[in-house]
Design brief:
With 121 residues, this protein is an alpha/beta fold. The protein has one domain: Response regulator (Rossmann fold), CATH 3.40.50.2300. Helix content is 44%, strand content 20%. The chain is built from five helices and five strands; from the N terminus they run E-H-E-H-E-H-E-H-E-H. Helix 3 links the parallel strand 3 and strand 4. The protein is globular, with a radius of gyration of 13 Å. The termini are close together.
Length: 121
């Protein structure tokens, strides 16, 4: 059964690639390109998983993640941070209570593995 996945990234090429791969896995995909839009989509769509870029216009991905993880209704939704900054990602993951992270640039297999880890598909 298809799961609902929200992909949040402000880089059009990265977003397009992620959407393509996740749809190819058979999942329903929603997208957002900034932090506020992401938060609204999470509240509205209640996705089964969120792939969340750390650096976003308006509201950083870590702030979006913190708000989701501190919300009783939303906190069970797995959030995977997506970032190019390997230096601080582990600390950011802990700080905002993200479930996992993936470093850009990443291999498609790694993306699929992370999604499968949380959705079992």
């Amino acid at each position: 059964m298809a799961k609902k996945i929200l992909i949040v990234d402000d880089e059009p090429d990265v977003l397009k690639m992620e959407v393509f791969r996740v749809k190819k896995m058979g999942h329903e995909v929603f997208t957002a390109t900034n932090g506020q839009e992401a938060l609204e989509m999470i509240r509205d769509k209640k996705p089964d998983l969120v792939l969340l870029d750390v650096r976003l216009p308006g509201m950083m991905g870590t702030e979006v993640c913190s708000r989701v993880k501190n919300d009783e209704i939303l906190k069970a939704i797995p959030v995977i941070l997506v970032t190019a900054s390997s230096e601080t990602v582990a600390g950011k993951k802990e700080e905002c209570k993200a479930d996992d992270y993936i470093l850009k640039p990443f291999e498609v297999e790694e993306l699929i593995q992370k999604i499968t880890k949380f959705l079992g598909t």
